[in-house]
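Hi team,

As requested, here is the filled-out complex form for the 4'-deoxy-4'-aminopyridoxal-5'-phosphate run. I kept the field names the same as last time so the parser does not choke. Let me know if anything looks off before we queue the next batch.

— J.
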Amino acid sequence: MSLSSLLQRFNEPETLKMAKLGRELRAQGVDVIDLSLGEPDFDTPAHIKEAAVKAISDNWSHYTPVPGFPDLREAACTKLKRDNNLDYKPEHIVASTGAKQSLANAILALVDEGDEVIIPTPYWVTYSELVKIARGKVVEAHTTLESGFKITPAQLEAAITPKTKLFLFSSPCNPSGAVYSKEELTALAAVFEKYPGIYIISDEIYEYINFVGQHESIAQFPALKDRTVIINGLSKGFAMTGWRLGFTASTTEIAKAMEKIQGQMTSGTCSITQKAAVVALTTDLTPSKEMTAEFTRRRARVLELVKDIPGFKCYEPEGAFYIFPDISYYYGKTDGTITINNSADFSMYLLNTAHVSSVMGDAFGEPNCVRFSFANNLTNIERAWERIKTALAKLK
Ligand code: PMP
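And here is what came back:
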């Protein structure tokens, strides 16, 4: 059998691989605590579920327009004005089967073979792989724990070449939890203003899970708005990962390009989900705020718990629901059988010894770090970190 060369160009997501290994161990009867996955452990708010039930009863069961129902695109505009003070019209919005699909649409619409795409590390696993699918060239810009895992204007400028087509980042960031402030974005915007040919994809899917206050979008700078594609969706802020709804806000030209791609790939997303999304995007955000309040409590507890772990260097996340410590202190150490040489060894050691799943930093372009989610209840978080502490104490 001869499969396409496309399959050689990219990897499957490490996050999903780790979750799969955890599930396999669990199937053997092992009590695995999952700190690997990136989804809220909450139920979808009741008023959104009711809207979906009503959509089924009302027979919203047919194909939808490829970029989404008109009322959904309007709802996305309402949200962008309400939360971000950004003016968009429905023609600027393309709804999709999740932020991941929106990222794929945007990257395929913008990136040609050989185009350089600057991605600050650490970044969400899928970014680099989608760029490779589009035959673009990934240019990693390495940030440091000391800089709060944020790219500086000087670093950005140093990474730019005549081939740079796109800058791709998330704020709040998965995996580091970094949240760019208005001042930090202003400084980056000043660099972009000097290079009018560079587009920006701003992944804002964790917008509501923010521990420092106001979310800021890079699209707020008038000189950048027309070359920014905002990515957002329902997965994280409304605990709706399985419903599959993402959306983009961009110029009409880019929106039409993405619509063309989506028209051949998926025909758009589920009609029921779209009707529920209208309600999610335009009504009460109290459930999202309550969820973030719970993440805030867990974050505080996790930061206390990791203080007890020798050798961890940890940045305090400003958003999302992960901690991403540098664990390189453990390199070269052994429990007598297994030696830890990299973050993959470290993650596997924790899975097999502590029965806690995590994701190795290699997957995010930061090989010395490991990602631990706190999208799990406090009891499991306490149990997991106790086990991690015991397992790591065996490494000498
Ligand atoms: N962007 C980031 C940074 C993410 O972490 C994720 C989900 N893990 C996505 C996009 C994809 O979200 P969706 O479920 O909407 O496809």
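Two things worth flagging: The first helix runs from residue 6 to 9. The CA atoms of residues 98 and 245 lie 4 Å apart.

Thanks,
J.
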